[in-house]
Specification:
CATH class: Alpha Beta
Strand content: 15-25%
Radius of gyration: 21 Å
Number of helices: 16
Structural class: alpha/beta
CATH architecture: Alpha-Beta Barrel
Distance between the termini: 13 Å
CATH topology: TIM Barrel
Number of domains: 1
CATH superfamily: Glycosidases
Length: 483
């Protein structure tokens, strides 16, 4: 088993889940700042957690509470990032994936010039990373668009948002391009169908007669155009940099070998790949266009859009991988949750504390499938397990996390041996943070424990878990020592 020299081992974070300081340094509200913690809602009911109304938003805008809105406090990375970077460096990180909070640079998204206090924060963060030889992997849009753009224009449904995003991205390239070699456009761009508000600022009741699904596809098209446009701008400003797309890899198997189950699975997998297809190949898949036509969905495009998509394709493909699922036409088949999805349960797999099915072999299958399809370098930018960790006498023993990663790293190595070109791996997440969908702290992913509970009680002090020392050994051996 061998990983390539200069393999980028590290971890991944999102600004909205770690920074906190939601009203500090001139930052404006983002869509994440109005996401609520719902302790009385089933943690597996993603729609209940991610759904939102205009009334909910207006109530949140007039409320300074950080208990109800946990992403406003995060884990206080904004003030403690130097302490955290030291810990990442101690593990031997070669890379750290972060995002730039759009509303920290452009509070409403419509300002002509950036908020210099926000620019200064990220400049300091990137300098700190570079001082420890940690490569920043930067996501431009990670579920944190300015709330003002959502309320005023229904988010990405309105074409003018392309220009606002391009202005923001240009500033990022101009100010931070000297630090950043790898950029990602939209985090899990396919998630727009699953949680439109979180991903694209879409408020369902503002969609009117055309409906939410039509709004989602229109907004998605605008994100595709924006992606192509900023890729070209990046190459002009930072010629040596690379732009990647980012997909939620939702590996799905047929529940049985019945042809109907196989056909249903094929449709699901084709839909999952559609988003990266557009950004890699620079065109819409014919099958997807035909499906939209049958659904009565007509995307409004400018004459130059298709040309822009073709000219602004990505350099590499990144993705998240947490679990797999199966598909069946049987309406009585038992279903189980995954990464903001529901799938038919696979009897051959174990499940996490949150019901996500653990499938290391599925990661190898995904790597081979993606590389064969796209023939571009791959980057695993999210992978991990949410668990209920317990601190006893200042120590956190998490053998289940070590075993999860060990099995996935073995499968990564096998894919590399098959010939897959894999740039790097950033775990989700190297430190405990606020969960994306359920807004919980108790769903812990990190190698580093943060002393805080779901209500925000605690010291927020950091503690090393057993997995911290194990991952340090893995990185030091470049993946050879997995014991």
């Amino acid at each position: 088993m061998s990983f390539p020299n200069h393999f980028l081992w590290g971890g991944a974070l999102a600004a909205n889940q770690v920074e906190g300081a939601y009203n500090v340094g001139g930052k404006g509200l983002s869509v994440a700042d109005v996401a609520t913690y719902k302790p009385n809602v089933d943690i597996k009911d993603y729609k209940a957690h991610t759904g939102i109304s205009l009334e909910d938003i207006k109530a949140a805008m007039s409320d300074d509470n950080t208990d109800i809105y946990p992403k406003r406090r995060g884990i206080d990375f904004y003030h403690r990032y130097k302490e955290d970077v030291v810990l990442f460096a101690e593990m031997g990180f070669k890379a750290l994936r972060v995002s730039i909070a759009w509303s920290r640079l452009f509070p409403t998204g419509e300002e002509e010039f950036p908020n210099e206090e926000g620019v200064a924060f990220y400049d300091s963060l990137f300098k700190e990373l570079k001082s420890y030889n940690i490569e920043p992997i930067v996501t431009l849009s990670h579920y944190e668009m300015p709330l003002a753009l959502s309320v005023k224009y229904n988010g990405w449904v309105e074409r003018r948002i392309i220009d606002d995003f391009v202005r923001f991205s240009r500033v990022c390239f101009e100010r931070f391009g000297k630090y950043v070699k790898y950029w990602l456009n939209f985090n899990e761009v396919d998630s727009i169908i699953r949680h439109p508000f979180t991903t694209a600022g879409i408020i369902p009741e503002l969609c009117g007669e055309k409906g939410e699904l039509a709004c989602c596809y229109q907004a998605l098209h605008h994100q595709f155009v924006a992606s192509a446009r900023v890729a070209k701008i990046m190459r002009e400003i930072v010629p040596n940099a690379k732009m990647g797309c980012m997909l939620t890899k939702l590996m799905t198997y047929p529940r049985t070998c019945a042809p109907e189950d196989v056909a249903a699975t094929q449709a699901k997998n084709l839909d999952n790949m559609f988003y990266s297809d557009v950004m890699v190949f620079g065109e819409y898949p014919v099958l997807i266009l035909n499906r939209m036509k049958k659904q009565g969905i007509q995307i409004k495009m400018d004459e130059s859009d298709l040309k822009e998509l073709k000219e602004g394709t990505v350099d590499f493909v990144s993705f998240s991988y947490y679990m797999s699922m199966t598909e069946s036409i049987d309406p009585n088949a038992e279903r189980t949750p995954g990464n903001t999805v529901l799938g038919v349960k696979n009897p051959y797999l174990e499940s996490s504390d949150w019901g996500w099915q653990v499938d290391p072999v599925g990661l190898r299958i995904s790597l081979i499938e993606l590389y064969d399809r796209y023939k571009k370098p791959l980057f695993i930018v999210e992978n991990g397990i949410g668990a209920k960790d317990e601190m006893i006498d200042g120590k956190i023993h998490d053998p289940y996390r070590i075993e999860y990663f060990r099995k996935h790293f073995i499968q990564m190595s096998k894919a590399i041996d098959e010939g897959v070109e894999l740039i790097g791996y950033t775990s989700w997440a190297p430190i405990d943070l606020i969960s994306a969908s359920t807004n919980q702290m108790s769903k812990r992913y990190g190698f580093i424990y943060v002393d805080a509970d779901d209500e925000g009680n605690g010291t927020f002090n950091r503690y090393k878990k057993d997995s911290f020392y194990w991952y340090k050994k893995v990185i030091a051996s470049n993946g050879e020592d997995l014991d």
